[in-house]
Amino acid sequence: MSASPAPHDPSEISEIIQRNMHLEGPLLPILHDVQAAFGYVPDAARAPIAEALNITEAELHGVISFYHDFRRKPAGARVLKICRAEACQAMGANEMSEALLAKLGLGWNETAPDGGLTVEPIYCLGLCACGPAAMIDGKVKGRVTAEALAAEVAR
Fold it and tell me: Sorted alphabetically, which InterPro entries does this protein's record hold (predicted)?
């Protein structure tokens, strides 16, 4: 999902928190809803979430950084996720990724200067027999090459 930075309306953040407080273990649903609203989990949401759940901001940071789907800044208009799991690595994903990132001039979790593309690692897309695998704009692709992904990105 991509979104441009939205104003971080404290009332919207508060509403998201309150909407999920009745749940057992509301932290992940809150984070998912915040990211859905803003395209990422903005720093402005951290203190209210931590306070509402009676956890430290360090604990909250640990959860956000542990789950790879949570973003700390907005993603590009298109998102390319490349599998980094062992099966894909065995099929050449590391070499393919290095070649593609060099061709794109990006690193992991970086967004192109024009905001058009973000490249992220993902740890298993379920295409282990068809590695290396990637997902672009939510569409999963198997047996990818750096050239094919570069062409897909260029479209």
Answer: NADP_DH_HndA-like, NuoE-like
Phi, psi (deg, nearest 5) at residue 56: -80, 160
Between the alpha carbon of residue 22 and those of residues 9, 26, 56, 146, the distances in Å are 22, 7, 20, 46
User: If you search the block for the tokens 């939510």, which residue do you land on?
Assistant: 138
pTM, entire model: 0.78
Residue 130 · residue 124 · CB < 8 Å: no
Encoding tokens for residue 134? 């990637």
Domain positions in the chain: 10-66, 78-154
14's tokens: 């508060």
Q: Which CATH superfamily is domain 78-154 in?
A: Glutaredoxin (3.40.30.10)
Q: What is the pLDDT of residues 84-103, one digit of tens each?
A: 999 999 999 999 999 999 99
DSSP 86-133: HHHHHTTHHHHHHHHHHHHT--TTEE-TTSSEEEEEES--S-GGG-S-
